[in-house]
């Protein structure tokens, strides 16, 4: 998921936080996908 305002991303369990550049690197390696914070409120 992503916090658009801060340009940081974290995993759903909030364990890993990365900046946008790192996310671009990691998403291919780990198969991460982007979700908005709103989607997590369900
Ligand atoms: Zn970074």
Describe it for me?
This protein is α+β, with helices and mostly antiparallel strands. The chain has one domain. 26% of the residues lie in helices and 19% in strands. It has one helix spanning 20-30; strands at 2-3, 8-10, 17-19. A hairpin with a 6-residue loop joins strand 2 (8-10) and strand 3 (17-19). The radius of gyration is 10 Å and the shape is globular. The mean pLDDT is 79. Bound molecules: zinc ion. The site of zinc ion (ZN) has 4 residues, from strand 3 and helix 1.
| CA(first)-CA(last) distance | 14 Å
Can you tell me the overall shape? globular
Helicity range: 25-40%
Average predicted confidence as pLDDT: 79
- Give the biggest beta sheet: 3 strands, antiparallel
Structural class, please? alpha+beta
Portion of residues in beta strands equals: 15-25%
Would you count the extended β strands for me?
A: 3
Work out the helix count. 1
Radius of gyration: 10 Å
- Ligands (ions, cofactors included): zinc ion
Order of helices and strands: EEEH
Number of domain units: 1
Looking across the biggest beta sheet, what order are the strands in? 1-2-3
Low-pLDDT runs: none
Compact description:
This protein is 26% helix and 19% strand. It has one helix at residues 20-30, and strands at 2-3, 8-10, 17-19.
